[in-house]
Backbone:
């Protein structure tokens, strides 16, 4: 296929958190608001005059200093983020909104406050308590946490407009970006897609780490380009897979899978588009703020939710995505030392194999893609097993 016009530009934007579009927005006087987790609604951080920046630590190969504070038994994502902060990689931030999603994430966010690694006079850290269920009582609690610890501080500290009109504008911004990303991702449903999983991963990531108003024109142009892009004459992969699990913010991971012959057609993981790029609907009788809180609590698929209904929701979404995107199998992955996703991986592996009869491959990985030999072997073996299954069915 012909190369996408802006792909190299997108790849360059992902080489550091403080990329050129972030720098441009800061120079224009926008407040840079960092976050690490889906529990912090991206939409609230894109109120007028602000922009969200989901934190990554690209090309982080050593976490020696962060390990001193967090120990080497904490998940490598949290250590990498703290290491990059100590290196000065997030000095552009005005605030970090954290969520007590797990003990490792909580400790990392606390060290942003204890060590003062971000050299910005206006910088502050806030950590919200997150509910374990998505019922009405927990929704009210979630609303109170976001109102008191996100919305009110933005108004008081930076003078951000948090009115109903501003909230509706933020929802419109979210829906516009989500519409573009969803339409681009839908091309993966085709029998012979005109976009690869790697290309989509890059596009999805830049939509999370760059100011929306600056990246949106490039995304719209890419969507138009894809409408007339001709796919390969023959499907160039041997299988189609869905990736499910914890943080995957390095497109090289997707490229590795695809180099083994399996196209990544669905992305159900942290930093992915499912969930994250669904439309926010304001229901009758709701304020815009209430709609945002409800939407994020309802669509969250974090394994921190251990209630039966949420477990069933995660399983059903995984199954539906595999069916909708015609995945031959599912790769279940978790970050090393991640408690919640480790348990989830074991549970879903059992359900997939014994109840849904969907082929799956389970792996544990580091944050940075270093030694890939073992992963490559696992992926190649999985692809071969999917091919054998197809042959047997025929």
Residues:
């Amino acid at each position: 296929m012909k190369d996408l016009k802006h792909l190299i530009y997108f790849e360059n934007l992902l080489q550091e958190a403080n990329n050129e579009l972030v720098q441009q927005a800061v120079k224009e006087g926008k407040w840079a608001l960092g976050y690490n987790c889906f529990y912090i609604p991206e939409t609230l951080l894109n109120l007028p005059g602000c922009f969200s920046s989901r934190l990554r630590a690209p090309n982080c190969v050593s976490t020696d200093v962060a390990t001193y504070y967090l120990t080497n038994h904490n998940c490598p994502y949290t250590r990498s983020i703290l290491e990059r902060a100590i290196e000065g990689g997030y000095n552009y931030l005005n605030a970090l909104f954290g969520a007590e999603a797990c003990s490792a994430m909580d400790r990392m966010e606390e060290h942003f406050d204890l060590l003062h690694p971000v050299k910005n006079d206006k910088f502050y850290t806030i950590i919200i308590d997150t509910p374990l269920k998505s019922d009405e009582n927990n929704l009210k609690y979630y609303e109170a946490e976001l109102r008191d610890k996100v919305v009110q501080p933005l108004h008081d500290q930076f003078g951000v407009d948090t009115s109903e009109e501003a909230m509706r504008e933020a929802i419109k911004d979210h829906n516009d970006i989500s519409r573009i990303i969803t339409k681009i991702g839908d091309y993966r449903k085709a029998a012979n897609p005109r976009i690869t999983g790697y290309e989509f991963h890059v596009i999805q990531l830049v939509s999370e780490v760059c100011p929306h108003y600056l990246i949106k024109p490039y995304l719209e142009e890419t969507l138009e380009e894809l409408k007339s892009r001709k796919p390969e004459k023959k499907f160039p992969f041997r299988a189609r897979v869905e990736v499910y699990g914890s943080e995957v913010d390095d497109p090289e991971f997707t490229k590795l899978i695809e180099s083994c012959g399996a196209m990544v057609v669905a992305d159900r993981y942290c930093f992915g588009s499912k969930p994250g790029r669904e439309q926010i609907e304001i229901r009758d009788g709701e304020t815009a703020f209430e709609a945002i809180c409800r939407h994020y609590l309802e669509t969250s698929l974090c394994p921190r939710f251990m209630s039966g209904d949420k477990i069933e929701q995660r399983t059903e979404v995984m199954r539906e995505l595999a069916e909708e995107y015609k995945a031959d199998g599912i790769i279940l992955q978790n970050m090393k030392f991640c408690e919640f996703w480790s348990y989830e991986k074991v549970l879903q592996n059992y359900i997939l194999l014994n109840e849904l009869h969907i082929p799956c491959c389970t792996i544990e990985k580091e944050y940075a893609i270093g030694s890939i030999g073992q992963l490559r072997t696992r992926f190649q073996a999985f692809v071969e097993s999917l091919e054998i299954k197809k042959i047997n069915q025929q």
Strands lie at 31-35, 50-54, 95-99, 124-128, 239-245, 262-269, 329-335, 360-365. The longest helix spans residues 136-158. The longest strand covers residues 262-269.
